[in-house]
Design a protein that fits this description.
The structure is a homodimer. The first copy, chain A, is an alpha+beta fold. Among the domains of chain A are: about 165-355, 2-Layer Sandwich (BirA Bifunctional Protein, domain 2); about 405-515, Rossmann fold. The first copy, chain A, contains 19 helices and 19 strands. Chain A has helices at about 25-40, 55-60, 95-105, 150-165, 180-190, 195-205, 210-220, 240-255, 260-265, 275-290, 295-310, 370, 385-395, 415-430, 445-450, 465-470, 475-485, 490-495, 505-515, and strands at about 20, 45-50, 55, 75, 85-90, 115-120, 135-145, 170-180, 225, 230-235, 320, 335-345, 350-365, 380-385, 405-410, 435, 455-460, 470-475, 495-500. In chain A, the strands form four sheets. An eight-stranded mixed beta sheet of chain A has the order 2-6-7-14-13-12-8-11. In chain A, strands 16-15-17-18-19 form a five-stranded mixed beta sheet. A three-stranded antiparallel beta sheet of chain A has the order 3-5-4. In chain A, strand 15 (about 405-410), helix 14 and strand 16 form a beta-alpha-beta unit. In chain A, helix 1 (about 25-40) runs antiparallel to helix 4 (about 150-165) and helix 7 (about 210-220) packs antiparallel against helix 8 (about 240-255). The longest helix of chain A has 19 residues, at about 25-40. Chain A is elongated. Residues about 60-70 of chain A have low confidence and may be disordered. The interface between A and B is large, with 107 and 107 residues.
Chain lengths: ~525, ~525
Amino acid sequence: MAKPKKQPRPKAITPKGFRDYFGQEVTQRTEMLRAIADVYHRYGFDALESSAVETVEALGKFLPDVDRPNEGVFAWQEVDENDKGDWMALRYDLTAPLARVYAQHRNDLPTPYRRYAMGPVWRNEKPGPGRYRQFYQCDADTVGTASMAADAEICAMLSDTLETVGIPRGDYLVRVNNRKVLNGVLEAMGLGEDATARDNVLRTIDKFDKVGEAGVRELLTKGRLDASGAFIDGVGLSEDQAEICIQFLTTKAMLANAVEFQQDVIKAGKAGTPNAINSAVTENLRRLVQNSAVGLEGVQELEQIAELLERQGYNTDRITLDPSVVRGLGYYTGPVYEAELTFEIFDEKGRKRQFGSVSGGGRYDDLVKRFTGQEVPATGVSIGVDRLLAALREKGRIAAQATGPVVVTVMDRDRMADYQAMVAELRNAGVRAEVYLGNPKNFGNQLKYADKRNSPIAVIEGGDEKANGIVQIKDLILGAKIAESATLEEWKERPSQFEVPRGDLVAKVREILDSQD
Amino acid sequence: MAKPKKQPRPKAITPKGFRDYFGQEVTQRTEMLRAIADVYHRYGFDALESSAVETVEALGKFLPDVDRPNEGVFAWQEVDENDKGDWMALRYDLTAPLARVYAQHRNDLPTPYRRYAMGPVWRNEKPGPGRYRQFYQCDADTVGTASMAADAEICAMLSDTLETVGIPRGDYLVRVNNRKVLNGVLEAMGLGEDATARDNVLRTIDKFDKVGEAGVRELLTKGRLDASGAFIDGVGLSEDQAEICIQFLTTKAMLANAVEFQQDVIKAGKAGTPNAINSAVTENLRRLVQNSAVGLEGVQELEQIAELLERQGYNTDRITLDPSVVRGLGYYTGPVYEAELTFEIFDEKGRKRQFGSVSGGGRYDDLVKRFTGQEVPATGVSIGVDRLLAALREKGRIAAQATGPVVVTVMDRDRMADYQAMVAELRNAGVRAEVYLGNPKNFGNQLKYADKRNSPIAVIEGGDEKANGIVQIKDLILGAKIAESATLEEWKERPSQFEVPRGDLVAKVREILDSQD
């Protein structure tokens, strides 16, 4: 071992891709997680907090026979006598641990098992602007039932959750699709057996929002020139095959014009309910999957979900069928769902855009099977709380800056006990309050501190005040407003500093705080 | 690379030393953290959530020039082009990250900076019974002030916190000591310069609870035979030196007889306040540190803390000076404090014992200096929430088992929408409720499920009920009670199943839930 040398000072930085969260960033997230947990709990879901660390083997997807099984995850090898310990890793989501927990505890858990989980997950990926390697997930899953009622329930719960955290009806839409319908459409296109072509088609469908109907048609057939002039190879389908796919996708376009569509429906006397659009969608899908058994099964599942939701009063202004929802190429086997915020925001370049997806999920049937050999049907959703918080801040629905504590200043350092007694009184009355604990010599620094803390009120008791049994109470919010804009007249009329008897301290502070709301 | 072989099924287990938390274990902890955060917030502390992952360099204590810097922590090396990436590690406490955060953001943070943090930390240690490698910490620290008012404030906050989470006054005691007093006593013993002897004495003091006065006296001087017959070497002090140390320690014994002591004080007419014991302690300490400058400074600091607390109404029944508090040999430089629960519990072997410490902390002045070169005084406390939860469960102050949701059973699987509509009504009325989503064929399984969920109520609507516009509501709690102990008479008189019109579902469920409280 090298002999110890003088260490340079360590750098005070987070590792690349990690960050710290301060004050309100933390408390607003905590508050949101609490509100979401309340809804999940009311739906009968039970909390689960699995360990952050799992064996690489249990997490799956990462082969233990490669040298460093840490592709995508943060992993390390346990140290044992022979330096051959197990590989462990930080969880990369909350679903893989759920599968492990259910397999491990299935004899003690109820079946079906409804559980929710919230907490950080870690990804060993290249960080980018706004993309961190640690972030929060907030999941709810039902394990052990194939019933579409489980999927419908989660969609309803998602809708309730969004409204509970402050996204009003009309500002969001839960969209539901079914992988089986997609597969049925692919079968009808003659691609039932061709896995590569199917993946290519799914990937192309995912680009519909970007390149539009004509673009998708080109990409499905002979290829197209993209905006940069590069030629993108096509999937090589025939025009007839592509046509089925386009008709499938234009169900979405129809939805985009839902209002006009519904007016048409109503005019035609077809249906009076606002959910007519769901019937129109399933009708269209039934036609497109032709006689694909899996496709028809998917359409029936969507019909069941639509009926269950309608009966509970969740109409298509909240939850709607939408065939363009794909949700990646992952492990989903049936219904897939997604919640998007439908209002527009301005992006960093000042362009208007839709806020987009804040949550997604679906049905997956083989995660538990890895452990037990038995297929266990499951369905679940994940909410992106950080994106939701960003949306609420964007819309001004949660405060961008927190109000700080009342600051009791220190005029006489030998009377610290007097000042501490004041904050004790204030706190006992439920008021957030603190004594200035820095060097009290320079009073200006104390007011600068109160400013940095965003304090609403400063309390001052010097020797004269003490002798006369009074305190000075400074309304810092009003003071700032007056300083900004008031005329001399107003300044005189609306004093922002009050002299009250010491015994009235709490009452006066309360009065000012109330006036600031 | 080896060619892929068929993988055996992964084992569904957590890594050694890790565990999962279910249902109420999670929600009760969340609730406690929320209650604690409320108190911290009222005291002006701001939330901070630093990343779980830090550079090994920033965490400190672990040298980057050894091959595997993961002694005590979970650490791994970032993969870069040359396989020479930085070493990263999971945080092992919340104080080291605070030092890094303060050094990194000091220009943006207020000074003094009061912050609280709560979350898991990880230790790469041998797990044992009840000892896990991931556990929660819940800290509050004030950085950037040397004022004893900061220490007193944290002790007061600790007292408030314990009462807020459900430990009543009298069931806990916050005990305060000062490292400078210890150092002063060691100086008075003539050990001011001898670091090894000092450490040995401190370690011996820590054993006072176990071996008593006579044992400590032997250990400080010539050594002693322990219970197993092995000879433990002594520190080698003279009898005179040991005597100073014993007198220091017996200040604690005096405290143990506090009631008698206070009666003596009052009889002697010395003082009428319940805090006379604090004055007696500092008097004794002042005598023991003789003319050690650092010792006298420590005594003065204790006097300041005691006065500040007394003025805020925190008497010695809540917070008291106690010279036997050592708090390990770590980085503390001034006041140290500890909260212990004073009631007795029965341990796993059925023996009575004190519950003991649930929180500790103190002043440390050189953690930030590692990064910036400047000394930044700081003081803070850490609460062991899991031990606190265990104490509350032990005393029956929080429920050992949670009440489950109302379960709406499925008598007719084609009418799932009806049942979902029922739970939607119940949830909208704020009642936790769910539909049975397993295979409904066997009704007995549905009731077994409700039992496993600890459900208070089951709702039943078969074909007949539907036709007659009624529902059956089964009080499962009362039902269980009756089944356990009722006579036939009582059984008849107190039916546990009710038939009500469908429209009265919510009202009747409410009524039964209220009767169960």
